[in-house]
């Protein structure tokens, strides 16, 4: 190492000769010089250590299959990663399952608070004569008075437990409905590092498959608070007038809201343990890049997989680029049920249009020109619901024209649109594997993942020949 040589004042090294101590050096000067040299040696050792660690990581990664999950916010990337982990890293998945309890309860409470918030707004509009479509009499007012303070307290408590900063805890500011217009405050998130710490501290073998005693009392308090008002929440959630009010205000609850609200009886018992499906449905917006290693094969000699999950909202996309030259395959999630929705970050942009623009960018990227491309046309179940509800695709996607307003036709049309983009935008000819998915459906997704695995491994072997 160059610095080491300098310190020995090697007379054959010109740099060492220049930096050698003066022959007339006083004892004070000598002490000061030795102190400076020791400090420099310390820094040098640190740099060496970092380089060694970096080389070790690179060497370890060399034989791995690296997969990057891409797509806009809420497209289903983290849910896809969960499917991978549930299927191929089963032991770890089971070990971590109990830690999701607070996130699940938070999802539930946030949905209930969103309904209450909308109800309040509706009542205010009514009071000022702005709206007379619904009459919310004392019956509903009592619900609001009884539930709001209680559930806001539970929401704050759960956020604090999950490591939120004080400014992120205030429920009033956070509980904004997901409307088709922009939200004025961000969705709740936990930075991956905080979240991982949370997983580590709440995972405890001493409580069989359940959280560590440190957080458990708080979680149980929240659970009991929810249990005390679960009948009221159920009544509101199942009330036709409330549902009509949500529809009229164009409030779109989170995709998992109905799943958790329908399951409130099961979730609000003291010894509730999250199931696979609960964890899969639990929504936590991704910030930073999350990395997970797993084995997709029983064969110990087969390469390990490293999956990178990124945040999909616009402010997160700058973090994608450094991963482009590292990966063997990209799994791109395009939620095609979003044809009638706008981006939360920019209400002028249609979500399907945003997915198509992103896909074009991925296909055109020179860095990704030899990367295996896999496309999930996701959220087919929600697309089906919307079509059943009579929402007309061509109202939002004029190019759809007079084609039948049927799920299979919409899928066929969009599949072709995405496929054409691959053909027109890729720097060199390539194939792309396209799947229609509902990644919240674990059974069908398991079949898709096996096919993805086999396709990626075949492509990986070909890549090895090319590079
Ligand atoms: N019904 C249904 N819900 C889905 C599907 N895929 C994802 N979701 C739900 O959509 C929400 C968003 O999914 P995530 O996997 O968190 O989305 P993401 O792409 O990781 O989002 P960011 O982390 O913000 O980039 C969650 O509530 C999921 O349960 C699907 O195919 N069908
Ligand atoms: Mg995510």
From TrEMBL:
Xref: Gene3D superfamilies: GI Alpha 1, domain 2-like (1.10.400.10), P-loop containing nucleotide triphosphate hydrolases (3.40.50.300)
Residues holding GTP: 255-256, 280-286, 378-381
Pfam families: G-alpha
PROSITE patterns recorded: G_ALPHA
The keyword Magnesium appears for this protein: yes
Entry's Gene Ontology cellular component terms: cytoplasm; heterotrimeric G-protein complex
Keywords: GTP-binding, Magnesium, Metal-binding, Nucleotide-binding, Transducer
Binding site for Mg(2+): 286
Region Disordered, annotated ranges: 1-41
Keyword tRNA-binding in record: no
Bias (Basic and acidic residues) ranges: 27-41
InterPro entries associated with the record: Gprotein_alpha_su, GproteinA_insert, P-loop_NTPase
Coiled coil (residue ranges): none
Any one of the GO BP annotations: adenylate cyclase-modulating G protein-coupled receptor signaling pathway
GO molecular function, one term: metal ion binding
UniProt-recorded name of the protein: G-alpha-domain-containing protein
Organism (species): Rhizopogon vinicolor AM-OR11-026
């Amino acid at each position: 190492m160059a610095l080491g040589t300098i310190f020995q004042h090697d007379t054959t090294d010109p740099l060492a000769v220049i930096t050698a101590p003066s022959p007339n050096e006083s004892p004070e000067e000598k002490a000061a010089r030795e102190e400076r040299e020791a400090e420099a040696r310390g820094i040098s050792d640190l740099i060496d250590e970092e380089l060694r660690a970096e080389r070790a990581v690179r060497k370890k990664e060399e034989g791995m299959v690296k997969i990057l999950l891409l797509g806009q916010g809420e497209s289903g990337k983290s849910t896809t990663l969960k499917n991978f982990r549930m299927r191929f890293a089963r032991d770890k998945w089971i070990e971590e399952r109990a830690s999701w309890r607070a996130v699940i309860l938070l999802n539930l409470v946030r949905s209930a608070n969103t309904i209450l918030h909308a109800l309040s707004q509706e009542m205010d509009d009514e009071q000022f004569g702005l709206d007379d479509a619904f009459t919310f009499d004392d019956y509903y007012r009592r619900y609001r008075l009884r539930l709001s303070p209680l559930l806001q307290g539970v929401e704050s408590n759960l956020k604090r437990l999950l490591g939120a900063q004080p400014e992120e805890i205030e429920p009033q500011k956070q509980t904004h409905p997901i409307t088709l217009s922009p939200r004025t405050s961000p969705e709740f998130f936990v930075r991956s590092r905080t979240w991982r710490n949370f997983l580590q501290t709440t995972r405890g073998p001493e409580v069989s498959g359940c959280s560590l005693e440190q957080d458990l009392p708080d979680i149980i308090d929240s659970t009991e608070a929810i249990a005390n008002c679960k009948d009221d929440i159920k009544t509101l959630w199942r009330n036709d007038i409330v549902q009509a009010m949500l529809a009229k205000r164009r409030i779109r609850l989170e995709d998992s809201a109905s799943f958790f609200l329908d399951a409130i009886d099961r979730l609000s018992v003291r010894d509730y343990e999250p199931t696979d499906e609960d964890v899969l449905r639990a929504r936590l917006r991704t910030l930073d890049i999350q990395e997970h290693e797993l084995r997709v094969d029983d064969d110990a000699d087969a390469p390990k997989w490293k999956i990178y999950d990124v945040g999909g909202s616009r402010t997160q996309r700058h973090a994608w680029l450094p991963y482009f030259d590292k990966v063997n395959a990209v799994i791109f999630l395009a939620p095609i049920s979003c044809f009638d929705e706008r981006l939360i970050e920019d209400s002028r942009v249609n979500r399907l249009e945003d997915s198509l623009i992103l896909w074009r960018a991925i296909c055109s990227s020179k860095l990704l020109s030899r990367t295996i491309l896999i496309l999930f046309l996701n959220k087919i179940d929600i697309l089906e619901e919307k079509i059943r509800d009579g929402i007309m695709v061509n109202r939002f996607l004029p190019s759809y024209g007079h084609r039948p307003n049927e799920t299979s036709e919409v899928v066929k049309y969009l599949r072709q649109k995405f496929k054409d983009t691959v053909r027109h935008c890729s720097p060199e000819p390539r194939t792309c594997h396209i799947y229609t998915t509902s990644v919240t459906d674990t059974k069908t997704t398991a079949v898709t993942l096996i096919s993805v695995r086999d396709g990626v491994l075949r492509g990986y072997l070909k890549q090895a020949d090319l590079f």
